[in-house]
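Appendix C: a fully annotated inverse folding record. The material below is reproduced so that readers can follow the format used throughout the book. The structure is listed first as tokens, followed by the designed sequence.
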């Protein structure tokens, strides 16, 4: 994967700790990690070598127009997006990115202890947690509540944070399928100490693996686009049984530090057929023209029936 940590606004001191930790996750879990703060890495040919791109506390305007287009195409081709902390404080004038990350940063109260409510236990990024998770961090408020657009994995118990602007509902980590790719975002990770916290590292690892489509690639509970009913099984049961048959992506221009990244490359095909149906569903409901879309009718109807 590619970790991108360019900042044109506030720069978090924890970026280096985060980068070190993600590299170690890669070593321990068999995926290669490249890191850059150079927006020139965002070309079609270079991005094609990665299963996911991690925006690690990026801030401000970090990509140019052609680089933005390249990244949009990458996601539309099934690429994964992982946003961490200030990734929501990034690219305010690129609306497509705002949709990808899910919500833009608004403000934050002073860092403090809070209790998180674990809303999803079947996603790999939260499956290791109990019903609540108490920890110290900087708790972002967002410009609007993303709950209607994403599948919320964690929210802040509003009674435990002083100074929040989010009212009674405060999503803080989520996933969704977006424009052909898998997106995962967590607002956690402000502090250096976060990156030495096993539960947080497991959270990030699960986000990376699901965004990359390695395991449990479906964002659970997104009824409109998830064809399978929610089951009590663990996310591991949703892992692809085989990924060996897919074709390799072009080699990245940036040399991976770990050749095991081919494992990630091989899993790409698992994510390709299912992710572009949101607009089709909207069309079918709104205008009744499903019958005109011969090739998609069966798929769309199966999804609509299966999600109730
Ligand atoms: Zn911060």
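Designed amino acids, in order:
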């Amino acid at each position: 994967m590619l970790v991108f940590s360019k900042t044109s606004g506030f720069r978090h001191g924890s970026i280096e700790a985060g980068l070190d930790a993600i590299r170690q996750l890669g070593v321990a879990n068999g995926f290669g990690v490249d890191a850059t703060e150079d927006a020139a890495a965002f070309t079609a040919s270079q991005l094609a070598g990665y299963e996911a791109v991690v925006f690690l506390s990026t801030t401000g305007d970090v990509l140019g127009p052609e680089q933005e287009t390249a990244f949009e195409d990458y996601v539309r081709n099934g690429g994964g997006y992982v946003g961490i902390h200030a990734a929501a404080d990034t690219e305010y004038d690129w609306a497509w990115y705002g949709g990808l990350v899910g919500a833009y940063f608004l403000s934050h109260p002073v860092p403090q202890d809070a209790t998180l409510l674990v809303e999803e236990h079947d996603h790999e990024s939260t499956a290791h947690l109990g019903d609540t998770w108490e920890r110290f961090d900087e708790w972002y408020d967002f410009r609007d509540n993303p709950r209607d657009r994403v599948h919320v994995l964690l929210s802040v118990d509003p009674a435990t944070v002083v100074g929040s602007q989010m009212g009674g509902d405060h999503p803080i980590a989520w996933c969704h399928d977006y424009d052909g790719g898998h997106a995962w975002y967590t607002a956690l990770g402000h502090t250096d100490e976060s990156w030495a916290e096993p539960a947080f590292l497991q959270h990030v690892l699960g986000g990376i693996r699901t965004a990359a489509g390695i395991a449990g690639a479906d964002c659970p509970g997104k009824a409109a686009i998830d064809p399978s009913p929610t089951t009590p099984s663990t996310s591991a049961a949703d892992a692809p049984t085989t990924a060996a048959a897919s074709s390799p992506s072009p080699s990245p221009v940036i040399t991976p530090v770990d050749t095991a990244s081919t494992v990630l490359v091989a899993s790409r095909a698992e994510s390709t057929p299912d992710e572009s149906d949101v607009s089709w569903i909207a069309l079918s409901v709104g205008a009744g023209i499903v019958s005109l879309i011969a090739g998609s009718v069966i798929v769309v109807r199966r999804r609509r029936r299966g999600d109730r």
